[in-house]
Design a protein that fits this description.
18% helix; Pnp Oxidase, Chain A; 7-stranded antiparallel beta sheet; 3-stranded antiparallel beta sheet
């Protein structure tokens, strides 16, 4: 009997067994810090209780069908709660929402305490003042090392506050037009 192995399966087996490169984590973070990301809050409602977490690993995946990627940390205690509902909402934070980002990045606290929110058509929290939001169905999850790769099918979306986005660059919050490290030799 012949076993058919896809290129992806062969590569994964190769990486696991022999070709796993040694990339120092601190250097990897430094290099990836050169890429600017937006900041979102991923939220859901479980048994009538709002839950959410800050996530900068968010991206558009497809226009047709409308798909997004979110990548929660495998160690997240909030993502498993949201996963159980089968849906989530992405609130894209504005430049003036650093405090919201910080609140949802904490563990062991009521992250919604003092944060205004409304209910999306899917029944999930939308953070007040967010510049956009998307309601999504969990379509697929894939192992992504120390993160989960979640594909969401967008069912509702809306623009929100007219503001610049909250960004993260070189390990700190940033705004469009910030020139951190401009002109420095690397």
């Amino acid at each position: 009997m012949t076993t058919v192995t896809t290129a992806a399966e062969a590569l994964a087996a190769s990486v696991e067994t022999q070709h796993r490169p040694h990339v120092p984590q601190h250097r990897y973070r430094e290099i990836l810090g050169q890429f600017c990301t937006g900041i979102t809050v991923i939220s859901g409602c479980l048994d009538g209780r709002p839950v959410g977490f800050t996530c900068q690993s968010f991206s558009a995946l497809s226009l047709d069908p409308p798909l997004v990627l979110v990548c929660p940390q495998r160690s997240s205690t909030t993502w498993p709660l949201i996963r159980r509902t089968g849906r989530f909402t992405v609130s894209v934070l504005g430049a003036d929402q650093r405090d919201v980002s910080n609140a949802f990045a904490r563990s062991g606290t009521d992250k919604f305490d003092g944060v205004g929110w409304s209910v999306s058509p899917a029944g999930n929290p939308v953070i007040d003042g967010s510049i956009a939001w998307l309601d999504c169905w969990v379509l697929n999850e894939v192992d992504g090392g120390d993160h989960e790769i979640v594909v969401g099918l967008v069912e509702n979306l809306e623009r929100g506050a007219d503001s610049a986005p909250l960004l993260f660059h070189q390990g700190q919050y940033a705004q469009p037009g910030d020139r951190q490290g401009a002109g420095e030799d690397r």
